[in-house]
Automatic annotation (TrEMBL):
Protein name per its UniProtKB record: MFS transporter
Alphabetical UniProt keywords: Membrane, Transmembrane, Transmembrane helix
Major facilitator superfamily (MFS) profile domain span: 14-403
PROSITE patterns in alphabetical order: MFS (PS50850)
Family annotation (Gene3D superfamilies): MFS general substrate transporter like domains
Organism: Yanghanlia caeni
UniProt keyword ATP-binding present: no
Transmembrane annotation, as ranges: 12-36, 48-72, 84-104, 159-182, 217-239, 251-272, 284-303, 309-333, 345-365, 377-397
InterPro entries: MFS, MFS-Transporter, MFS_dom, MFS_trans_sf
Keyword Transmembrane applies: yes
Length: 403
């Protein structure tokens, strides 16, 4: 007897589980950065090594996202998501060792756990979600990323101050393990499309990327995401430093601004998914977001010491809604354009490009800001690639009639 394939109609149950998993792996990635000073002090290393930690995490994420198509097909999307949580938990366990040489492979393992989660959930949601609801559903699921960031920021620092950094890491590790159990009931009903005998080939690592590069619309979306992800990370990684060192905000106020940007991201991901589904379509929505990112970058870079706290918080929410709100619309578009049954593969290939943006754009932002002598100048110049994305997408809309 052949197992049934998951059908549309189970959208909200799948969404709830994938949202929780996304939030947990995001929290796993962001917990160490959230307690970086205390964590670095424990290891007797400079806080600047946080950059190496982030590079190792996203290097693992790139590799895992490229493998995700084969892994989803062989093991099923739910089982792969559970494995991702276990990799994150193992990586966090290694970071608890009193040696930087254990933290390094721990960071890479966290990335290996983080990388396949979005392709796996895209595979599940592409099957279970009606097309007219895809943008909203994918956007809600992607709120797991800023939700995970908010949880890391709200839970990890107080725990680190009260009980030490190891306590904060241990709590997140335990949450990942609990989330593994949360996904188990869906395995029997939503991993029935797996093909257990699917061979795992090294050459298959490039298949997702080749799929994306061979498809003009997917290639354009992936290239756009390279810039968008870079803008998102520049906002998250540099905002506190910028407000504190150049605008004389105290650290608590600067931290609140970063939290407000994450709140904006949660609101934006849901709002833009609804707008794409009901009004503008994916391409027009992404053009709008490109322009808003450019405007947010310029407005942030032109802030002066006289800027009021209320204005900075409002700007942080608006900038966050654009710079962190694009993911669901993007992923729904990738899943829609992918060949039938290959949403996970296409998402993995597209995300490998996205993660390269995470690695390269913030580094370039730092170099440009150093050369200009101001993070404000870096934010202003960050508007240029965002505007270029708007031009490219607008041209595609006019020439190709894309939705």
């Amino acid at each position: 007897m052949t197992a049934a394939t998951p059908k549309q109609g189970d959208t909200w149950r799948v969404l709830g589980v994938t949202l929780a998993i996304q939030a947990m792996v995001s929290m796993a990635v962001l917990t160490i950065p959230a307690i970086a000073p205390a964590f670095a002090e424990r290891l007797h290393v400079p806080v600047s090594l946080l950059g190496v930690f982030v590079v190792l995490v996203y290097s693992g994420a790139i590799l895992a996202s490229l493998m995700s198509g084969q892994l989803v097909r062989r093991f099923g999307a739910i089982r792969l998501s559970q494995a991702g949580l276990l990799f994150c938990a193992t990586g966090l366990l290694l970071t608890m060792a009193p040696s930087v040489w254990a933290v390094a492979p721990g960071a890479f393992l966290i990335g290996l756990g983080y990388g396949p989660i979005t392709p796996a959930s895209s595979h599940l949601l592409a099957i279970s979600t009606p097309a007219h609801r895809a943008g909203l559903v994918f956007s809600i699921k992607q709120t797991g990323v800023p939700v995970g960031g908010m949880l890391a920021g709200a839970i990890a620092p107080p725990l680190a101050l009260q009980a030490g950094p190891l306590a904060a890491v241990a709590v997140v590790l335990a949450a990942c393990l609990i989330c593994v159990l949360l996904g188990q009931p869906l395995h029997a009903t939503h991993d029935t499309d797996r093909v257990p005998g699917t061979p795992m080939r090294i050459g298959g690592l490039l298949r997702p990327l080749r799929l994306v590069l061979a498809h003009a619309a997917l290639r354009r979306l992936a290239t756009t995401s390279f810039v968008f992800s870079g803008v998102q990370l520049c906002l998250a990684a540099y905002l506190v430093t910028y407000l504190h060192t150049e605008l004389a905000f105290d650290l608590i106020s600067a931290g609140i601004a970063l939290s407000m940007a994450q709140v904006g991201g949660v609101i934006g991901r849901i709002m833009w998914g609804y707008v794409a589904d009901r009004f503008l379509g994916a391409t027009r929505t992404l053009i709008t977001l490109s322009l808003l990112m450019a405007g947010g970058s310029i407005a942030t870079g032109l802030l002066g010491e006289q800027a009021s706290f209320v204005w900075v918080m409002a700007l942080a929410v608006a900038f966050g809604a654009a710079a962190t709100g694009w993911n669901g619309v993007y992923l729904a578009a990738v899943a829609r354009l992918a060949p039938e049954g290959m949403a996970g593969t296409a998402t993995g290939g597209a995300l490998s490009v996205t993660f390269f943006g995470v690695l390269l754009v913030p580094a370039a932002f730092g170099l440009v800001s150093d050369a200009a002598g101001s993070l404000g100048a870096g934010y202003v110049l960050l508007a240029l690639p965002a505007l270029l994305c708007a031009v490219v997408l607008l041209r595609a809309l006019k020439l190709g009639g894309e939705r």
